[in-house]
């Protein structure tokens, strides 16, 4: 026996009042983030939204800075997204971090290559992973520190990108310690000079204008 046809009218279809705003915010987020795989990113977006977690959304659209031949997909903006998602924990589980990485449509090979710079078991200190990510964006150690400052700062975009000297020193010592050709004395001398600068300002902060190229860089 055939099932009776169901006739719907506008009064029978219930549309949640919050749906239009959810879709509007989702569209804006997708435009800002420009995900390489919209479906993969969307799954991560709505999963985070349902849990009340920080969303995988960039603050603004980033202009491409790498050629198609060398571009691995990782950008300062995407690292900042990961920082918003992970910085509430001192240590992050690698499985969870890899999932967030994939939701940003980044190649898993790049994720594993970053971890090979300082191998660990099941979890990693978040600030160290962020530092490794900054170092893989290219350039010298100072370039990596500039990226770190711009991600960690509470200053408005385009500002001095200041962060506490203690945070700067921790990241700098960590990255410099991974380079066997960089003498520890050079690192200590460089940080001592920056510490004097931060203390002279009486705020304990270091910004982009304070950075200079030390004797040797990585």
TrEMBL record:
Gene Ontology CC entries for this record: nucleoplasm; radial spoke; sperm flagellum
Record GO biological process: flagellated sperm motility; sperm capacitation
Compartments (UniProt record): Cell projection, Cilium, Flagellum
The entry's keywords: Cell projection, Cilium, Flagellum
Principal location: other
InterPro entries: ROP_DD
GO molecular function, one term: identical protein binding
PANTHER family assigned: ROPPORIN-1-LIKE PROTEIN
Family to which this protein belongs: Belongs to the ropporin family.
Name of the protein in its database record: Ropporin-1-like protein
Organism: Nannospalax galili
Lineage, opening ranks: Eukaryota, Metazoa, Chordata, Craniata, Vertebrata
Recorded name of the encoding gene: Ropn1l
């Amino acid at each position: 026996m055939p099932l009776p046809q169901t006739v719907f009218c506008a009064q029978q279809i219930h549309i949640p009042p919050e749906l239009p705003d959810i879709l509007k915010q989702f569209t804006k987020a997708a435009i800002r983030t420009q995900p390489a795989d919209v479906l993969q990113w969307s799954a991560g977006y709505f999963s985070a939204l349902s849990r009340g977690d920080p969303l995988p959304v960039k603050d603004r659209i980033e202009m491409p800075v790498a050629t198609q031949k060398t571009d691995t997909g990782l950008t300062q903006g995407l690292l900042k997204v990961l920082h918003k998602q992970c910085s509430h924990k001192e240590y992050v589980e690698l499985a969870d971090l890899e999932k967030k990485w994939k939701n940003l449509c980044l190649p898993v090979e790049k994720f594993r290559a970053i971890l090979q710079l300082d191998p660990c078991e099941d979890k990693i200190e978040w600030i160290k992973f962020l530092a490794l990510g900054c170092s893989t964006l290219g350039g010298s150690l100072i370039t990596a520190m500039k990226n770190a400052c711009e991600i960690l700062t509470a200053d408005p975009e385009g500002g001095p990108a200041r962060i506490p000297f203690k945070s700067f020193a921790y990241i700098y010592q960590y990255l410099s310690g991974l380079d066997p050709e960089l003498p520890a004395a050079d690192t200590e001398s460089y940080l001592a000079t920056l510490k004097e600068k931060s203390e002279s300002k009486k705020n304990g902060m270091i910004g982009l204008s304070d950075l200079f190229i030390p004797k040797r860089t990585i």
